[in-house]
Design goal:
157 residues
Length: 157
């Protein structure tokens, strides 16, 4: 049967790919077409079959709450720095610290100095934007006393 030329391609999120593979493990007798119905996907059965072929890869994938919306699995550059900064950031946010882009860049650069193999890390604005997008960080304008948090205290943590 020929494909509908006007049909728009649908992207499947990483979170959905992982859930699809886990569901297939629990229900091995379900076909790709049945899984398409269950997950309400707008894709061809061959797309689901290709995902299921790599199910081991998708199941072991660590999908954060916000990264589940991503549709492509790209190799992350500077993985050690990003993981270290993520852990530091989660700790800072848990203590209600205010984080700015400059703080994140400075702390990331300090982590890069600790990891000798990461000597070409620049902590550029582009890197910062991608880091913020991966971790669902937004810019919120602070006023009054909240705007006067000391950067030195945050950088020491």
């Amino acid at each position: 049967m020929p494909k509908n030329v006007n049909q728009k391609q649908a992207a499947i999120s990483l979170k959905t790919k992982k859930a699809l593979c886990q569901y297939k493990l629990e229900h091995p007798d379900y076909s790709a077409n049945r899984l398409i119905e269950i997950f309400n996907l707008k894709v061809d059965h061959s797309t689901v079959t290709k995902i299921l072929v790599k199910s081991d890869q998708w199941i072991e994938k660590n999908v954060y709450d916000n990264s589940g919306q991503l549709t492509k699995d790209r190799k992350e550059m500077f993985l050690k720095i990003n993981n270290a900064l993520r852990e530091w950031m989660l700790g800072a946010l848990a203590t209600n610290c205010i984080l700015t882009g400059k703080i994140l860049q400075t702390k990331a650069f300090k982590f890069a100095e600790k990891f000798l193999k990461e000597n070409n890390f620049k902590a550029s604005d582009g890197w910062l934007e991608k880091f913020k997008k991966r971790h669902n960080l937004h810019h919120i304008k602070m006023h009054g006393k909240a705007n006067s948090a000391l950067l030195e205290i945050l950088l020491e943590k």
